[in-house]
């Protein structure tokens, strides 16, 4: 598929400066590797040198960029180059996904399923259970399982091997990467007097609001009662565990290998690094930033707090403590020398 530089500029609400506005673009590439017919972007000035020798047909740049020498291709000037390039990738992916329509065989779709078959894609070996409702332009890749009573909004993409268990609800524009599991049983077991554990039925569900992305092999458990909720705009990386009855606030992002224990509530616009552990039944305030490998044992009430360490404490305090920790061998020698002097008096 080809599109002109000018058409891309119109899509991004930008302006073409220099080069050939009618040049045709058919692919996206890195600024240092692309050839004619490709488009790239410049957002990080560490790569500025490549814009003066690049072979691509066009580069997306920010309004603040002022070239130090002649640029050999067209520049599409937008407010923010990174955001503009993201919009271009999103549109490119959307157009690719829209090309897939139809139901591959073998696939099982219960006769009670409510689905817009004219815009849907269902990959081979997919199983769609009784009472499922699926919106428009939903793309379901091979080997997906969708349980009874699941509801899926418009423009969702379910990649290969996704499992959506009974009663789960997805809003519009959600993306589940390969192997994600939505609505598996929460980790609920009651200890018995004889030392064994009795399984507590998990009768709740999972709700994903609009524009939620879930990474590969990430698991979101169903609630014991009520709902586990990922609110609008939540982004989860690969290999994350979200336990039963957790609520993750709007536009919060969580990196890989993080585990959030049951009934915890994470606020809006939080940023949580990789390998973070969150204890159960705690609340984390809006805009909290948690460094990688931190452990949260207590809740946080003040919005915008930056924390790190295990147990996690404010970042500045942690860095000060670490500065002391690094000097412990030296401090130990000083204490021993002072001890010897005191004993010799």
UniProtKB/TrEMBL annotation:
InterPro entries: Hexapep, LpxD, Trimer_LpxA-like_sf, UDP_GlcNAc_AcTrfase_non-rep. Its EC number is 2.3.1.191. It catalyses: a UDP-3-O-[(3R)-3-hydroxyacyl]-alpha-D-glucosamine + a (3R)-hydroxyacyl-[ACP] = a UDP-2-N,3-O-bis[(3R)-3-hydroxyacyl]-alpha-D-glucosamine + holo-[ACP] + H(+). Gene3D superfamilies: Hexapeptide repeat proteins, MurE/MurF, N-terminal domain. It is an enzyme of class 2 (transferase). Residues 23-89 form the UDP-3-O-[3-hydroxymyristoyl] glucosamine N-acyltransferase non-repeat region domain. CDD domains: LbH_LpxD (cd03352). Keywords: Acyltransferase, Lipid A biosynthesis, Lipid biosynthesis, Lipid metabolism, Repeat, Transferase. The active site is at 244 (proton acceptor). GO terms for molecular function: N-acyltransferase activity; UDP-3-O-[(3R)-3-hydroxyacyl]-glucosamine N-acyltransferase activity. It holds the Pfam family LpxD. Belongs to the transferase hexapeptide repeat family. LpxD subfamily. Homotrimer. Catalyzes the N-acylation of UDP-3-O-acylglucosamine using 3-hydroxyacyl-ACP as the acyl donor. Is involved in the biosynthesis of lipid A, a phosphorylated glycolipid that anchors the lipopolysaccharide to the outer membrane of the cell. This is UDP-3-O-acylglucosamine N-acyltransferase. It comes from Flammeovirga pacifica.
């Amino acid at each position: 598929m080809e599109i002109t530089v000018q058409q891309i500029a119109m899509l991004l609400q930008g302006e073409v400066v220099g080069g050939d506005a009618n040049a045709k673009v058919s692919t996206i590439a890195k600024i240092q590797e692309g050839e004619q017919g490709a488009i790239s972007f410049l957002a990080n000035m560490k790569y500025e040198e490549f814009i003066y020798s690049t072979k691509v047909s066009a580069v997306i740049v920010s309004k603040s960029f002022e070239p130090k020498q002649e640029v050999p291709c067209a520049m599409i000037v937008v407010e923010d180059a990174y955001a503009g390039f993201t919009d271009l990738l999103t549109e490119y992916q959307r157009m690719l996904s829209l090309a897939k329509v139809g139901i591959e065989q073998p696939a099982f779709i219960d006769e009670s399923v409510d689905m817009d078959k004219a815009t849907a894609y269902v990959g081979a070996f997919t199983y769609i259970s009784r009472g499922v409702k699926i919106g428009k332009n939903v793309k379901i890749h091979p080997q997906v399982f969708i349980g009874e009573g699941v509801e899926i909004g418009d423009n969702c993409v379910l990649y290969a091997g996704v499992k959506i268990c009974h009663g789960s609800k997805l809003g519009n524009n959600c993306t589940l990467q390969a192997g994600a599991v939505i609505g598996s049983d929460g980790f609920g077991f009651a200890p018995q007097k004889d030392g064994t554990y009795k399984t507590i039925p998990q009768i709740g569900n999972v709700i994903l609001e609009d524009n939620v992305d879930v990474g590969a092999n990430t698991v979101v458990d169903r609630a014991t009662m009520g709902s586990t909720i990922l609110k609008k705009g939540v982004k989860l990386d690969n290999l994350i565990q979200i336990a039963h009855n957790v609520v993750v606030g709007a536009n919060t992002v969580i990196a890989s290998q993080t585990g959030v224990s049951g009934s915890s509530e994470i606020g809006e616009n939080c940023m949580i690094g990789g390998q973070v552990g969150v204890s159960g039944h705690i609340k984390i305030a809006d805009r909290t930033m948690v460094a990688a490998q931190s452990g949260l044992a207590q809740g946080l009430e003040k919005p915008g707090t930056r924390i790190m360490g295990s147990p996690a404490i404010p970042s500045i305090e942690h860095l000060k403590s670490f500065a002391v920790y690094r000097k412990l061998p030296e401090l130990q020698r000083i204490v021993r020398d002072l001890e010897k002097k005191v004993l010799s008096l």
